[in-house]
Amino acid sequence: MATFVLVPGAWLGAWAWEATAQALRECGHTVLPVTLTGLGERSALATPEVGLDTHIDDITAFVEEQDLSQVTLVAHSYAAVPVTGAAGRLGARLERLVYVDSAPFAEGTCLLDVMPDDVVDRLHKLVAEHGDGWRLPLPPFELLGAMSTLEGLDEEQLGLLRARATPQPIATFAQRLTRPVEPAPGVDRVVVACRDAKAVLDAGTPALAFLNQPPWRHFALPTGHWPMLSTPVELAETLDAVVSS
C-alpha cells in the first residue's frame, strides 16, 4: 500500500480530492490531500507575498513534519511547479512523482510562461480589475476552457468549481522556479495524461521529449483537465494502478 500526498492545482484546496481520496483509502492506501497557503480553508493566509516559494515550502514541510516516507507525491496542473521545486528536497522520503495532466517545470520558468500571450493579458486584467492587483480569481469558464479543457464537467461540477474556488495570489503564477534539485535516480516518475497532456505528448513538443523516454511512465485517463471532479473514481483506479505496476 502506498502513501499518497495529493497537491491540488490552481484555485483549489484539499476539498477537490475528496472523492478520489476516499476511493484510494478504500483500496487500503494512506491518502493525505494538501491545501496550499492562501487557498481553500487556508485562504485567510493569502497575501501579495505568497508566491511559488511559499508553496514549495508548504509541500516540503507537510511531508517532513508528518515524518512521511515512501511518498507518492501527486501534482495536478499548477501544482506541477511547486512539486518540481519540492521533490528534490524530500530526498529518500520520496518514492514516486506523479504529474496529473501536467509535467515538471524547468529551472527559470513559471506557469505564465506556458500560456498564450492573450490569455496572460486577460489574467492580468482579472487581477487588476477583480483581485486588488494581486489575486487572480477563477476566470470565467470561457477563458478557463481556453487554458485547459473542461471536458467531462457537468453543470453540477462546474457549479462546485465556481463556488469553492479561491482567488490565488498571482505571484504563484509569476514567480520563476529557481534551483530545483533533481530527485534521486531511483524515484519512479509518472504522467497521468488526460486530454490536454496527451495532446502535448502526442505532438512531440521538443521541450517535453524526455517524458516519452525512460524512466518516465504514462497512464491515460480520457477526460478533461479536472479528473478529480469529472472522473474521481477512475482517477483513483489509475493512481492505484500506478503504484501497483
Question: Can you give a write-up of this model?
Answer:
With 245 residues, this protein is an alpha/beta fold. The chain is built from 10 helices and 8 strands. The strands form 2 sheets. Strands 2-1-3-4-7-8 form a 6-stranded parallel beta sheet, sandwiched between helices. Helix 2 crosses helix 3. The protein is globular and about 45 Å long. The mean pLDDT is 96.
Low-confidence stretches: none
Residues in helices, as a percent range: 25-40%
Number of helices: 10
Number of strands: 8
Q: Give average pLDDT, whole number.
A: 96
What is the spatial order of strands in the main beta sheet? 2-1-3-4-7-8
Give Rg in angstroms: 17 Å
In whole angstroms, how far apart are the ends?
A: 12 Å
Shape, per Cα inertia axes: globular
How are helices and strands ordered from N to C?
Answer: EHEHEHEHEHHEHEHEHH
Strand content: 15-25%
Biggest sheet overview? 6 strands, parallel
* Main structural class: alpha/beta
